[in-house]
Amino acid sequence: MRIASLLPSSTEIVCALGFEAALVARSHECDYPASVRALPPVTAPKFDPDGRSYEIDQRVKAILQEATSVYRIDADLLKTLEPDLIITQMQCEVCAVSFAEVERVACEFLDVPAQIIALEPNNLADVLADVQRVADALGAPERGQALVAAMQQRMTSIHERASALPKPSVATIEWIDPLMSAGNWMPELVEMAGGYNLFGQAGTHSPWLSWDELAQADPDLILILPCGYDMATTERELPALTQRDGWEALRAVQQGRVFVADGNQYFNRPGPRLVESLEILAEILHPEAFSFGHEGTGWRKFQPVRVG
Question: What is the pLDDT of residue 68?
Answer without folding.
Answer: 57
